[in-house]
Amino acid sequence: MHQGIVTTGWLENALQQDNPSIRLFDATFHLIDKTRDAQQECNDEHIQGAQFFDITRIADTDSPLPNTVPSVLTFEESVRALGVNSDHTIVAYDRFGLVSAARVWWLFRYFGHNNVAVLDGGFPKWLAEGRPVNADSVQYPQGNFTATVQSDLLRSANQVHNIVNAKGATIVDARGAGRFAGKSPEPREGLRAGHIPGSVNLPYNSLLNSDQTFKSAKQIEAAFNDAGVNSQEPIVTSCGSGVTACILALGLAQLGQHQTPVFDGSWTEWGSTESFPIATL
Q: Please, which of 14, 197, 229, 248 could form a disulfide with 279 given CB 3.0 to 4.6 Å?
């Protein structure tokens, strides 16, 4: 495990050794294609031992915002039900390569668990390499996971508003250039188009190779530099709803920056709050 990433080879070797300390999760999230059922897809085909981690349900489901960070109690109860102990190694993957798995990486770290990683290249790379999958269900004993919230890893809308006014950090937006510019429609109805004033656009896929693995640390740093961002200075990452923002935070971890906070509500919250200013290109 290196800076929150594991390779397909590392994972297959660990599974072949039947390592009891690993909990593996399929964290696939379908935002656009509502005809797809991520839970069912996981049930039908998954990496050995994987369980489905539903980021839409292991969340604050009372919030009007999607995928919002859950309470400590909700998170503890949810992951204990999945058989997670405080000493387990957590590995997450998704069916796009890397879209939503980093959210699980960030959530566990927010709740004080650093022994967590994303499968580099995800399920597509695993399949492309001919590695084994099955449809076997798995059931673990109730876990004992205990959370310790790391509040420095999260920023609220009001905190981001204050940051913008004080220029206290660079807000880096992981959405595509069209959405950032306000020229492409938002996937969620009713949202204003544009971006947080003063924020910088760095689409999350700028950090990834064509096989959805992370680029080298040197290339990641160059991507931030090309966007006009000094990766060594304070950064808050944002996106549409706090999911792909976690990819930018994981990318910064490859550069040794392990405490990058995520704007949890991201553009869904900012763009729907009429009192917050917006910018377009």
A: 197
| Statement: the pTM of the whole predicted model exceeds 0.90 | yes
Q: Which domains does the chain have, with CATH numbers?
A: 5-149 (3.40.250.10), 152-272 (3.40.250.10)
Cα 94 from Cα 123, distance rounded (Å):
6
The secondary structure of 81-108 as a DSSP string is HTT--TTPEEEEE-TTSSSSHHHHHHHH
Query: Once rounded to an integer, what is the mean pLDDT over residues 9-30?
Result: 95
What percent of the chain lies above the pLDDT cut of 90? Answer: 94
Catalytic residues: 239
d(CA 173, CA 203) in angstroms, rounded, equals: 7
Q: DSSP class of residue 117?
A: E
Q: What is the pLDDT of residue 1?
A: 65
Tokens of 281: 């290109």
- The reported pLDDT for the residue numbered 83 is 98
